[in-house]
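This section describes the prediction task in plain terms. A model, or a person checking by hand, is given the sequence of a single protein chain and must write out its three-dimensional structure as a string of tokens. No templates, partner chains or ligands are provided. The sample shown here is typical of the held-out split.
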Amino acid sequence: MMKSMAAPQVVNCPTGLEITVAQKPPRLVRWSCHPLAFPVLPEKAAAGMLIGLDEAERLLRLDFVLPGKNTQTAFREALEARLGHWRKAYGAATEFAEQTGAQAAGAGAIVRRLFAPRKAPWKLAVALHGTPFQTAVWKALAKIPHGQTVSYADIARRVGKPKAVRAVGTAVGSNPVSVIIPCHRVIGSDGGLHGFGWGLPMKRALLAAEGADCVKPDLFAKEAA
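The expected answer:
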């Protein structure tokens, strides 16, 4: 079971994303899991960040591993559940290979830069696989500035589908590289945080770490009601 690292106070999303849209699923996903702590998580909770890279070291997927219990068995079950989701997304033709030690250095560097104690510019290559509509939405998400938020309706307008707000919400929820492509910066038109795959406490924590103005005590109370 992983030991949690010190909880980060800053989220440093890449300042430059080199996005490639892949027409076919990757032949190989090189995955590794790295220890993670975040202010919203229990201090002694075992949590991880699951990173998937392709053979060119481009980021394919990023996921949180958040077990319900602080045990080795619970952590492994949560990890296998996330990997099962990845396998379903890519299909049987994609192979998965675990990377450890020096093999996982590139993925480990992504985690360290993302949660570095001081904000610093960095670049990252990302390979996306999805429908044309999904990739259009993900590219629009990538353009939301650090510390700012937009609504699902805003994204719908940006991709030229102003009436497809619900479909935009589904595409946002399918974002394969959470945090890196900042789906947590999308909120409701009413100012509420609304959905997030990892729960609203995690979404609040990410936005608070970025200094987003929308994160206020009254908003917390509204979402908790």
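For orientation: Residues 72-90 form the longest helix (19 residues).
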